[in-house]
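User: Thanks for the earlier help. One more: Peptidase A1 domain-containing protein. Can you show the sequence and predicted structure together?

Assistant: Of course, both are below.
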Amino acid sequence: MGVKKFAYCLNSHDYDDTRNSGKLILDYRDGKTKGLSYTPFLKSPPASAFYYHLGVKDIKIGNKLLRIPSKYLAPGSDGRSGVIIDSGYGGAGYMTGPVFKIVTNELKKQMSKYRRSLEAETQTGLTPCYNFTGHKSIKIPPLIYQFRGGANMVVPGKNYFGISPQESLACFLMDTNGTNALEITPDPSIILGNSQHVDYYVEYDLKNDRFGFRRQTC
């Protein structure tokens, strides 16, 4: 189509019945978009050339740096590992087993004041799940991606946890079993699925090989 960049802004209908829809923008202009933070796309190996790989240096849960081993964050020559962004991957996304364990272990530490709901985990296949009965709300730390170039993407808890205020339940939505509807082969280590981008304006700058984003109400 000859576009130099495209962008979208996804909104959520989890807790409302509005008819507002997200936006898709096709842009034929060059240059930076006002207010965006940028990080370069990584060159994808031939085995996964159809993915958009992002250069993630590390991940934080709240203020805690997780020190994810670099072998999981950079795409291998066989197309495995690395971090991709995919608006078609439902839910919060995917994490390979070792990364999932590092992330959820830290979540469990920071959310230890809430009671684990093993019943919800059994019913949903998600883990960890929490029952926050007796609390006015549940406080979930942000998930922060530290990108090459210095940009940080701060994903609020409501974007990567499924929260049911009526039942006082909240479950971590990242998939680690490959049960999502889309089959991704070869396997990246992390997929930023669509709920992580909700209320973010995200831009794929094809001309300049970079990914841009900013928080906004979509």
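User: Great, one quick takeaway?

Assistant: The radius of gyration is 17 Å.
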